[in-house]
Amino acid sequence: MAGRTALVIAHRLSTVERVDHIMVLEDGRILEYNTRAALACDPTSHYNQLLKTMNPEEMLT
């Protein structure tokens, strides 16, 4: 989907492994928004915490 904007709503982290930016929502509020790499590297990020709950076979590359 190069050159296009798409809104993806996902419950599985593997669904968003190739997106440019991630927005984490809770109760209709935006908790965080940044690149996948930035959120994955931030130990205080909700996205980072979700990554830690994954099985090693499911880890994003």
From TrEMBL:
GO terms for molecular function: ABC-type oligopeptide transporter activity. It comes from the Bacteria. This is ABC transporter domain-containing protein. It comes from Dictyobacter vulcani. InterPro entries: P-loop_NTPase, Type_1_exporter.
